[in-house]
Amino acid sequence: MRVKKRKDGRYPVSISVNGKRKWFYGSTQQEANIKANKWMEQYGSRDITNLQTLTVKGYLERWLELHAKSKEVLTIAGYRNYIDNHIIPAIGSYLMDKLRPMHIKEYYADELTKFSPKTVLQEHRILKKAFRDAVNDDIILKNPCDAVKAPSVFREYEPVIYTDEEFMLLMNAVTGTPDEIPIILAGLCGLRRSEVFGLKWSDVNLKTGILTVARAAISHKGTILYKTPKNKSSFRTLAMPEEVITVLKKYQGIGFVCCNVKGKSINPSTYSHNFADLLKRHGLKHIRFHDLRHYNATLMLRLGISDKEAASRLGHANLITLKKTYQHILEEMDAATASKINSHYKNGNVVKTVVKTENVILSMASNGAGDRV
Question: Which fold has domain 51-155?
Answer without folding.
Answer: DNA polymerase; domain 1 (1.10.150)
